[in-house]
Structures are given as C-alpha cells and as structure tokens.
Amino acid sequence: MTRIAVDAMGGDYAPSEIVKGAVLASQELPVEIVLVGKPQILTSELAKYKEKGKLPIVPASEVIGNDESPVQAVKSKKDASINVAVSLVKQGKADGIISAGNTGAVMAAALFKLGRQPGVERPAIATEFPLPAGKVLLLDMGANVDCKPQHLQQFAVMGNLYAKNVLHIENPRVGLLNIGEEKEKGNELTREAWNLLKQTPINFIGNVESKEILQGKTDVIVCDGFVGNLILKFAESLASSVFQLLKTELSKGIMNKIGLTFLLPALFKLRQKITYDDYGGAPLLGVNGVVFKAHGRAKAKAIKNAIRETAEAVKGNMAAKMGKNQ
Questions:
Q1: Of 108, 110, 141, 286, which is most buried by a Cβ count within 10 Å?
Q2: In whole angstroms, how far apart are CA 302 and each of 22, 126, 245, 275?
Q3: Where in the chain is the domain with CATH 3.40.718.10?
Q4: Of 94, 101, 88, 86, whose CA–CA distance to 18 is shortest?
Q5: What is the DSSP string of 287-318?
Q6: Distance between CA atoms of 61 and 240, rounded to whole angstroms?
Q7: Nearest to residue 277, comparing CAs of 239, 221, 223?
Q8: Are 263 and 251 in contact (CB under 8 A)?
C-alpha cells in the first residue's frame, strides 16, 4: 500500500486540521498515512477520533515557522517535522510527502535530502487552474521569486512532462506568461526566455497574456515564482469574493431568494471548481521524489485531497517519469 508522510506541524491550522484531514484520508482512501510531529500533541489530537492508534506517529521535536529563513531553519533544525518527513522518503520508509508548512523550507528540505533531477537548477511548484473544460497548469507558483531565463526554460520542460505523464495530455501547448503576445514584449527575463523556449523541443505557442489564462488557449503556462504567487493568491481571493457577492445579491428580495434556491446546487459546484479545498496540493517538480505542498491555510478537506493527489502521483510513478525524460 502507498505510504504518505504528512508534516502534521506545518500550516496555519496545524496540527488540528492536518490530523483531521489525515484521519479523513485514512477512512476514504487506500493509503497508509504516517504523521510526523510532536508525539504528545499528535496523540492528543488523534484521541478525538476513532482512528486513535491507527495512524502511526514519527517523532519530530522541532517546527519551522512561516517567518523563519527557510534554508537556515532547515539546516539548524535537524529534527524539524519537515526534515523528518522528507527523510522518510529518502530512506524509503514513505513513498511521498505532503506539507502545508513554510514553502521555502519544503523546497530546501527536498533539495538537501532528495536532490535535484538531472538538468534542473530550480525545482518549481505547479498548480492546476480549472477551465470550463479541463485544466491549465501554471508554474512556478512561489518556489522561486528570482529567476533567470534558463529557469523558465526548465519550468517549461518540467510542466510539459507533468502534463504528458500525469495529466495525460498528448502534446501539451506551452505558453510564456507575458504582457503581450509579441515576442518583443515584456522585460529582459521574458524576452530572453522566449528565445530559449522557441529552441526547446516542446510545443511552445509563444506568449500568453494574463487575460487568456482561463480561456483554454494553452495547457501549460510558465512564469517566475513572484508573478505566479501573485496570480495564485489573487485568484483565490477573487473566487471567494465572487461567490460571496453572488450569495449576497441573490438573497435580496423574494424573487431573488426563490431563484437562489434553484441556483444553489450550481453555485456549490462552481465553488468546488474554484476553491483549493478540492485540489488540495501542488507538486514540487524537479526533485528526486514525490513532494506536494498544500496551501498554508489548508483545512481538513484540502489536506485529505492533497494526500489523495500525492498518492496518485506515487502510483503514477511521477518522479521516475519526470527524471527519465529530463
């Protein structure tokens, strides 16, 4: 059975929501889950559920906070939960890891302990955005805020491989996020990256503007982590605001309230498509192992789904397929 290590101490709602999500996953999914963190605290959390004693705990005496320097913290806190969890993958005691903790620390721990895949200088976080029909993969979503043109080229290659091997898209269309479609548009980074991508053996379709992200024009969109993270957080905020606005407006007046009764099922389906709870996690591409990063504000449902996605990536042999084709 696939075994997933869960950093139970990482995230804004750790450990309570992380443990709850792990319990839900253990009830619904054919996976074995290992919780990594402070035993006394995790044992107390598990006591709230019938699964007490069914989820093994691997001790980790330290925690890396979101306000800490990732590299320094990973190096100095050897027994931090994220370090211990990644070590389980390195030692073959777990098949994959999920963490909602410090993004930089997750990346640093994965790099130090698992190493990069051949040809990769900077691993990247990839996130799937829902489209009216299908999905679009964006990377990097925050692992690398300062990038060079060759890093965007590597992101494109990794995104292309992920789209082929995990999303099962035969010939993924790869675009470069920019402020205009012409190759001369953008800053020095995007102009140089355009030239590199044009020479790369992928289906590069050129520049893609932000207004086209959700129009289904491309399957993979590449950008640096600074821009990607801004897009991700704005999209999350926009989705929540639009949903709340619809509920508020439709609840005004008797006719609107009647209409809301019929619209609610469709609204909830829409919410499922645009909230991260139902997607759970994002893969860290470019490392020698299956590493997924959950949202820092992830609650139980998101953690459960992140565990599911991690298990699916393990079963699909994601890391080996990615490394073989670099």
A1: 286
A2: 10, 16, 23, 9
A3: 1-120+286-316, 122-277
A4: 101
A5: BSSEEEEE-TT--HHHHHHHHHHHHHHHHTTH
A6: 36
A7: 239
A8: no
pLDDT tens per residue across all 326 residues of the chain: 899 999 999 999 999 999 999 999 999 999 999 999 999 999 999 999 876 557 999 999 999 998 899 999 999 999 999 999 999 999 999 999 999 999 889 999 999 999 998 888 989 999 888 777 778 999 998 888 899 999 999 999 999 998 988 888 999 999 999 999 888 899 999 999 999 999 999 999 999 999 898 888 999 999 999 999 898 888 777 766 766 776 676 667 776 666 666 555 655 565 555 555 555 689 999 999 999 999 888 899 999 999 998 998 898 787 777 665 55
∠ CA 239-243-247, nearest 5°, is: 170
Contacts of 58 (CB under 8 A, 6+ apart): 5, 34, 35, 36, 84, 85, 88
**Fold for the domain defined by 1-120+286-316:** Isopropylmalate Dehydrogenase (3.40.718)
Q: 3-class DSSP state for residue 281?
A: strand
Instruction: Tell me the CATH number of domain 122-277, given options 3.40.190.80, 3.30.70.20, 1.10.3720.10, 3.40.718.10.
Output: 3.40.718.10
Structure tokens at 6: 């869960």
Q: How far is CA 195 from CA 212, 224, 227, 306, in A?
A: 21, 16, 20, 36
Token pair recorded at residue 18: 């992380």
Residue 97 near residue 288 (C-beta atoms within 8 A): no
| Other beta carbons within 10 Å of 191 | 16
Structure tokens belonging to residue 269 = 């389906």
pLDDT at 241 (0 to 100): 73
Structure tokens at 321: 């397929």
- Rounded CA-CA distance 314/326 in Å is 18
* Contacts of residue 212, Cβ cutoff 8 Å, sequence gap at least 6: 175, 218
Q: How many CB atoms lie within 10 A of CB 12?
A: 13
Half-sphere exposure of 115 (CA within 13 A, CB side): 5
